[in-house]
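During the practical work, I selected for study one protein's amino acid sequence and its backbone structure tokens, as given directly below:
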Amino acid sequence: MPDNPNLAAAWTYHNATKHSYTSIRTNPHFMDWSNQPLPFKIYPTLEPMRLPGEVRQTGVAALSGIAESVPAHTNASADLEAVAQLLYLSAGITRKRSYSGGEIYFRAAACTGALYEVELYLVCGGLTNLDAGVYHFAPAEFGLRRLRTGDYRRVLLEATGGEPAIAHAPLSIVCTCTYWRNAWKYQARTYRHFGWDNGTLLANLLAVASALGLPARVVCGFVDASVNRLLDVDPHREVAFSLVALGHVAALPPPSSAETSPLRLETVPLSQREVDYPLMREIHAASSLHSPEEVQAWRGQSPVTDFPPPAGATVQLQPLSDAEMPRDPIEQVIQRRGSTRKFARPPITLPQLSTLLDRSTRGVPADFLDPPGTQLNDLYLIVHAVEGLSPGAYVFHRSRGVLECLKQGNFRADAGYLGLEQELPADAAVDIFFLADLRPIFQRFGNRGYRAVQLEAGILGGKLYLAVYAQSLGASGLTFFDDDVTRFFSPHAEGKSAMFLIALGHSAKHKP
């Protein structure tokens, strides 16, 4: 009997990993710096093939890249230079900082704790200047290590139950997540971070694919064991979490050139010892799919989560006009993106807020979002400093393009408390909370719906990051006191669960 429909596992994990005022103060966990995990997966017996280092300038504005996607059946394929562009701008090292204990290598996409637990693998047919094979992306060397030689796309096609985008993709990127690299700091809550951190990376990847003219589709439904076996990962430590089909060709992939036998490749241990948090492995096992038929039944037909028409006062969004819209290209915006560490309090404008809400929520091409444009997460806002918008709590009616005021007032202190008693959400101009009603999502998608809703929150959060930095503002993703967030936005948000939080405004480093 498949575990996915037995929803006790998802609820158990979700409730057990909630933050509260009490849980934060009674948790004895501390970070053991002497046992900090390596930030990279290293295959010591495989030499990396270096990728082209020059960033291709597409000239496509970031605010266009995050809002638009290339039609699914557009014939297009990546060459080696495009592969390098996709990898560098989604998971590449964009800057580094020295500190007393060593160096931190910051990547292109935001990640909890700058721990970067997401690894990328390529499964491709023959591309221009890149042979068919299975490859691991090595950010430290900015190169590829070939794990298998030959065309293994048919394995992914079968594992995804015949997903059409995978069937016609000359290249697919598989995103895996490594438990210990993030759990060293965040313990069992790490499984939530899998969705957040994989999602922010995918937001970059989707935007760059759009700029390169490549169709892209996120695939969350697949037979877990088949994909893990293809990548030869140890599922007790590292697991496939999502796939992205990139490009479109008419021909279907040929039968696989060889069996996916174990490779038993040596990897360098992440640290001297690893601490196991069974809750994470339990929710992953319970949300796994075991056959192509189960995948086919899982895919599509998203639950409708539209809420009733506004009951309170509303404010119409006023996005910037085309003439006013910043034209900073996606490559530049990603390279300058960071996580703001202190906000200045001058206000942003309503057109700035309207633009980032409008551009980041136009839809994600994903197998669990059907029909296109469906969204699992709802956006709730605490507004502190927006010209033309009274301070207060709001909910975003995406289909109507309006913000409904739930209550007016200065809620800076409340926002600081909700964001784990930090100054960032109190000083920001706006705090955007993603909340979702998990009940219909679990009813439709089973335990794997928990992966999907967290992943979507991460993608939308990543799009917001890019929309914010495209307008020369700053942003930071934060964690939160779960049930207190729901209570703050209730009765409108009653029964929903907090998924993600992003604070935004003017960076104190770059005051307006």
Notes: The CA atoms of residues 333 and 466 lie 7 Å apart. The chain has two domains: 8-298, 314-510. Residues 190-212 form the longest helix (23 residues). The two ends are 59 Å apart (CA to CA).
